[in-house]
Write a structure and sequence with these properties.
Number of strands: 11
Order of helices and strands: EHEHEEEEHEHEHEEHEH
Number of helices: 7
Largest sheet: 9 strands, mixed
Radius of gyration: 17 Å
Mean pLDDT: 92
Shape: globular
Strand content: 25-35%
Structural class: alpha/beta
């Protein structure tokens, strides 16, 4: 990790809010600058979706004298996921905590990222083994912070509040919150609909209550879903 300048975790207590999609877009966005080296690490051990989202299904990791080599989407965008180590995308990973933690440690220690400007870490839902492990292992290497993803409805915000408190407890800096799936603009009539109504004020109200920055809102878009 000494060769990695900035380390950003993408978190959410809730599943299905778009962490992996956001992580992929953030990595692609940063990599648009050809002089910026970007790495995307998927530590969702049981549900690795980054290979599918990044169009890398079927790719495999190669080992060299300097460690595992990431799979490259572009010359300046490397990806690592447990999905590359499975014989099929449908294989179930049935591991207890210690084995998951060992895999995460191996990803952080044994992958030859090279000189990297940004490492984006896509995490599973929750506040358990994987999150504690990656925070613990990266603390010595200085984490820049976490971006938290939510959707506008209260059932999602409840879990994201827990994630914010998790960050406070483990002293993980919070870069800010992104409200994903924030409205849908019909491509025909151009009217906006709230698919997930923000009945309690959405991410904006939560961020104000908990004194964390709201980074922005990302609408539902069929092009992304495809």
């Amino acid at each position: 990790m000494k060769t990695v300048k900035h380390k950003i975790l993408v978190l959410s207590g809730k599943g299905g809010v778009g962490k992996s999609t956001f992580s992929a877009h953030l990595a692609h966005g940063l990599a648009e600058d050809e002089n910026t080296q970007v790495a995307l690490l998927d530590i969702d051990i049981c549900g690795p979706s980054i290979p599918k989202i990044m169009g890398l299904e079927g790719e495999q990791v190669h080992q060299s004298g300097s460690g595992w080599s990431p799979v490259y989407v572009e010359d300046n965008l490397g990806v690592m996921s447990v999905g590359f180590l499975l014989s099929s995308p449908d294989d179930a990973v049935i591991w207890r905590g210690p084995k998951k933690n060992g895999m995460i440690k191996q990803f952080l220690r044994d992958v030859d990222w090279g000189e990297v400007d940004y490492l984006i870490v896509d995490t599973p839902p929750g506040t358990s083994d994987e999150h504690l492990s990656v925070v613990q292992y990266l603390t010595a290497a200085r984490i820049d912070g976490a971006v938290l993803i939510t959707t506008p409805q209260e059932v999602s915000l409840q879990d994201v509040r827990k994630e914010i408190n998790f960050c406070y407890k483990v002293k993980l800096p919070i870069i800010g919150v992104v409200e994903n799936m924030s409205g849908f603009i019909c491509p025909n009539c151009k009217k906006e609909s709230q698919i997930f109504p923000p009945t309690t004020g959405g991410a904006a109200a939560m961020c104000q209550d908990m004194n964390v920055p709201l980074l922005g809102r990302v609408p539902l878009d069929p092009h992304i879903g495809g």
